[in-house]
Amino acid sequence: MTHQSREIHLAQRPVGVPAPEDFALVETEVPEPADGEILVRNHWMSVDPAMRGRMDDRPSYAEPFQIGQPLHGGAVGEVIASRSDRHAVGDLVLHGLGWRDLALLPGKRAAPVDASVAPEQAFLGVLGMPGLTAYAGLVRVAKVQEGDVVFVSAAAGAVGSAVGQMARQLGASRVIGSAGGPEKARHVVEDLGFDACIDYKAGRVRKQLKEHAPDGIDVYFDNVGGEHLEVAIGALRMRGRIAICGMISQYNATEPPAGPRNLVRLIQIRGTIQGLLVLDHGDLRDEFIDRVGAWIRDGVLRYDETVVEGLEHAPDALRDLLAGKNTGKMLVHVAG
Ligand code: NDP
Question: Quick check: pTM over 0.90?
């Protein structure tokens, strides 16, 4: 017996901003699970900025998507057939085969989801990869200390919104965000409790950061690169730390950008810039789920979602994410 499914394939590699014709919606038949496998009906799929990078044929930490093949990425769904002793029919699982209705995979490649902690889709956001990125970036890479002034870009997004709120719980004395547009800046301050938020579209980052952090910053959590990074280097105080998490301002660029022009400042202040990759920090997962689960339960960590309905609209969701149309985690609701 086979099951009818749909998948989103990479039709061609984008140049600049991905276009609708770079994707194809393909009908397909999925067989019954073989020994050790499970068949999952996806409920939710994650939409991540890094998916843009994987549409290019460029060496990176993750393999590029292949033309004519389905895209993939984080998803949560329900096991509908199982020949694995790890997961029973009806279980909710987290796995890496999003961008399709039905996912057939080895049971050992799926993790159980405990929906009593939070709704299942939170395991793609605050309790999943973006949340762990924020936590590991603060604790291990930026090594946030009691009293630090912390600055984070893309502050209304999945990672950035978690960074600011977690930094506060980890002892930061002042948390400043940057986001695009007045509504997002308002949300970051009033709903997420940051001390201040720059609207980087409304004026120069340097001038605005100076207003909110006149004595400089100790930590910059970089999600965007470009002007933000250069300004943050200039604002770093003695022994300041920068965690390089993402550079979304450059993901659609067709030319490499100019680097920060002020790296000499790192000598003066003995500053550190370090890259962060969430895949290196899986060992923090249990501690992370315990602490972040408690912060959510205690009401000190809020998370938001932007939901696009229907697998067929997943390409629009990726385009919208890159255009900043999301607040909080960008998700596609596939079924369930
Ligand atoms: P977000 O939810 O933050 O969504 C992306 C946001 O980026 C948009 O909403 C938009 O917000 C902002 N943005 C888009 N273009 C620009 C631009 N030109 N300048 C400034 N901001 C821009 O996504 P995630 O939370 O999933 O990811 C945030 C960053 O973290 C990304 O760079 C991503 O690649 C990185 N990341 C890195 C990981 C790692 O292991 N290193 C793991 C996970 C994510 P706005 O409207 O405010 O512009």
Answer: yes
Q: Do 175 and 148 touch, CB atoms closer than 8 A?
A: no
Q: Which CATH architecture has domain 129-280?
A: 3-Layer(aba) Sandwich (3.40)
pLDDT reported for residue 59: 87
180 lines ligand 1 (CB under 6 A): yes
Q: Give the residue whose CA is nearest to atom 36 of ligand 1.
A: 246
Q: How far is the CA of 303 from the centre of ligand 1 (A)?
A: 15
pLDDT of residue 254: 86
Task: Please write the tens of the pLDDT for every residue from 78-106.
Answer: 999 999 999 999 999 999 999 999 999 99
62 Cβ inside 6 Å of ligand 1: no
What is the Cα Rg of the chain in Å? 20
Residues for the chain: how many in total? 336
Which of 223, 250, 279 most suits a substitution to test ligand 1, by most atoms within 8 Å of the C-beta?
223
Nearest CA to 135 among 250, 294, 299, 271? 294
Angle (CA) 149-219-273 rounded to 5° is 165
From 58, 263, 63, 46, select the one nearest 133 (Cα to Cα).
Answer: 46
Provide the 8-state DSSP code for 331.
E
**Type of residue numbered 105:** L
CATH topology of domain 2-125+304-333: Quinone Oxidoreductase; Chain A, domain 1 (3.90.180)
Q: Which two tokens stand for residue 277?
A: 């990759």
CA dist., res. 242 & res. 148, Å (int):
12
